[in-house]
Design a protein that fits this description.
By secondary structure, the chain is an all-alpha fold. It contains 15 helices and no strands.
Length: about 375
């Protein structure tokens, strides 16, 4: 369609904003009124968005299509996060990592699918990906049935007439003051800003960067992005396992700040080292996501859906804003300057020092 960087960023912004705005509200509602089959509803929105995208013939139509996909995410994620926690058997970090790795692997194969299917066969070929959403609807209906049975078992164990606040107090064994919880949430907000702004730039513009700086073809640049996104999936699994074994705070601390040397070097390297550093940044930085989410739910264990929705929503929202902002900046300057500027964002990981230590109890 001959879009500008600003328009590319606007597409990501639309998807991420619709993904983010509803998630805390959906999570808050699902904490009070769980809806096991809400998982299916969310995937139906995604299915609709894919079908619309396959026939979208204008920029506004593309925005409408990705908005549907975004709403699907905001309905799906809070309840899915609760299902992952419920199925964790106490390994909450690994459970969240496995849950999130699905999205990361799907995102990683997106550029490859574009290179192999959409580029040679045209926009209409996107409708074939809707078949995956149809399969997902069936799978999620089965999971919803299992989730409904688990909720019934949990309800049988709840003390009669116990109010929501009482249940939360029974679950919260961290003995943190309100001030400590607020400080921790603010620190997590800063960390999410650092991580999501940086990764938004990579995900949206790495292909353009590789084309502009090294003269790669569109197909070759898509494979570089694929390598980065696969590394984020691997990092998620590593972060979940390490967090369960040694504590979430250490993973959060080492992940975002630990990726800063690689990020700072990346804009000044040759082609081979750029690819290597992009993979290392993706792997190290992504290891924090499941740790941040589980740490947040440990701060407020009675509000898992709301916290999950807020953090997923914040992640998508910040990513969308960052993508639009960096697209505008790339049009104003150039894409290489944007990569040099965003390389400093992981240094904000130093604020993880202020996170309090918490006792992580099994469900």
């Amino acid at each position: 369609m001959g879009l500008s960087f600003v328009q590319v960023g606007a597409i990501t912004l639309t998807n991420q904003i619709t993904s983010s705005l509803l998630q805390p509200l959906v999570g808050y509602y699902s904490d009070k009124h769980p809806r096991p089959y809400g998982l299916v509803v969310g995937m139906c929105f995604t299915l609709t968005g894919l079908l619309l995208l396959s026939v979208a013939n204008s920029f506004p139509a593309v925005l409408l299509s990705v908005a549907f996909v975004g709403v699907g995410s905001s309905v799906l994620h809070p309840e899915s996060s609760k299902v992952a926690r419920l199925a964790s058997g106490g390994a909450k970090g690994m459970a969240q990592s496995i849950f999130q790795i699905g999205g990361n692997v799907g995102r990683a194969f997106g550029p490859v699918a574009v290179a192999l299917i959409v580029v040679p066969h045209g926009q209409g070929s996107i409708r074939w990906f809707a078949l995956l959403a149809v399969v997902a609807v069936w799978v999620l209906s089965r999971i919803g049935r299992w989730y409904q049975k688990q909720l019934a078992k949990q309800a049988a164990k709840v003390v009669p007439n116990a109010g929501r606040n009482e249940v939360m107090l029974q679950e919260n064994k961290n003995n943190l003051t309100r001030r400590q919880i607020v400080i921790a949430l603010v620190v997590l907000l800063v960390l999410m800003f650092s991580k999501d702004f940086y990764t938004a730039n990579i995900q949206s513009y790495l292909t353009f960067y590789m084309i502009d700086k090294f003269g790669l073809s569109v197909g070759a640049s898509q494979y570089v992005l694929f390598a980065f996104l696969v590394s984020t999936a691997i990092g998620l699994l590593i972060g979940g396992e390490v967090g369960d074994r040694y504590g979430r705070k250490y993973v959060i601390w080492g992940s975002i700040l630990g990726s800063s040397p690689f990020a700072l070097l990346l804009p000044y390297c040759n082609l081979a080292w750029t690819i290597v550093l992009a993979v290392l940044v993706g792997m190290v930085m992504s290891s924090a996501m499941s740790a941040i989410l589980v740490y947040g739910t440990e701060l407020l264990p009675g509000s898992v859906g709301m916290i999950s929705g807020a953090f997923f929503g914040l992640s998508f929202g910040l990513g969308g804003i960052g993508s639009a902002l960096f697209g505008w900046l790339a049009d104003l300057t150039n894409i290489q300057y944007v990569f040099q500027l965003t390389a400093f964002l992981p240094l904000l990981g130093i604020v993880a020092y202020f996170l309090p230590n918490i006792r992580e109890e099994e469900l």
